[in-house]
Amino acid sequence: MSEETGEETSAALVLEQFGDLPRLVERPVPRAEPGRTVVRMLAAQVGHLDLNIVDGRFGILPELPVVPGTNGSGVVLASDTHPVGSTVRVNGKGVGLRRDGCWARHAVVPDAAVTAVPQGTDPALACGFFSPAGTAWAAVHSVGAVLPGERVLVTGAAGAVGALAVQVAARTGAEVIGVVGRPAKLEHVPPVAKAVLAADLSAEAVGGPVDVLVDTVGGPVLRESLPLVRPRGRAVLVGYTAGREFTVDLADFLLADVAVLPVNLMTRGREVAADAERLLAELSAGELTLPIERHSPDGLAEAVARLRSGAALGKVVLDLS
Ligand SMILES: NC(=O)c1ccc[n+]([C@@H]2O[C@H](COP(=O)([O-])OP(=O)(O)OC[C@H]3O[C@@H](n4cnc5c(N)ncnc54)[C@H](OP(=O)(O)O)[C@@H]3O)[C@@H](O)[C@H]2O)c1
């Protein structure tokens, strides 16, 4: 409650300048508007996309000040379209990108950015599953078209997208090799894959050429992994945590004869939504695993540092409950 105005207030992380970290402030509880849903947020993802936006290093940027957070989950407090009290996830329609996002205890978002999730879903899973599940599905199936019996190399295999890509590819009947950058992460590669350290990457270490590479890391890891793909194989590019640039020697590129295929969840979100929802049910049932780290809003700096350095294990989530 604000002492000056008597208005009810609520905590939000507000970004005032690109390159700084958002500040935790108390602001009036946002009010309901036509076409918008008020959500009491319970959890919000801190993802690489959010950090790119906070840093001002993304193709679409919001006007400042803004509440970042492209993915969240919570309970509907007021809406013309969504039942009050229902458990929902929030993403898309510019949330956290062109307008205030989910790093707040209360958010007012377009009705179309709100999707029901099964009652009882862990809020951290509800806010964190869609991006890795949708991206892993798109990488393995829609873009990589992995077939049973193929050999698939996944980099960042203990990360959120990587760990799910390993599991989705293995279920397809592929033989999966998971690459990690740090020895401590070897044991966090899902056991359906053979785990290999990036420093040891070689044709021998991965047991010969692979049919498909799913790269979630970029930079030097992509450079070292690409030559391991067989001619006429596919390299599916998902992320760039270790480096945004990718240069090719055209002569080598043509000789290698590997199709380099980008994944863009923003354009494929609708296409993979049903598959991602199915993966959520399996994650909730413990049939698939997605590692999650939970942080409080006043621990944002540590959460961001762990994500930026690559030390984080899986999804990094703010607990707003
Ligand atoms: N294309 C799309 O539509 C789409 C959708 C979702 C996510 N993404 C992107 O996919 C990538 C992976 O996302 P995620 O959610 O799986 O992230 P994550 O859980 O943080 O995994 C990323 C992995 O990258 C590795 N890494 C290597 N160098 C790093 C560095 N300097 N900083 C941070 N990580 C480093 C780390 O693994 P090791 O320690 O094993 O090297 C880390 O586990 C991100 O770039 C994200 O933006 C793209």
UniProtKB/TrEMBL annotation:
It comes from the Bacteria. SUPFAM superfamilies: GroES-like, NAD(P)-binding Rossmann-fold domains. InterPro entries: ADH-like_C (IPR013149), ADH-like_N (IPR013154), ER (IPR020843), GroES-like_sf (IPR011032), NAD(P)-bd_dom_sf (IPR036291), Zn-ADH-like_protein (IPR051397). Residues 19-318 form the Enoyl reductase (ER) domain. PANTHER family: ACRYLYL-COA REDUCTASE ACUI-RELATED, SHORT-CHAIN DEHYDROGENASE/REDUCTASE. This is Zinc-binding alcohol dehydrogenase family protein. It comes from Streptomyces vulcanius.
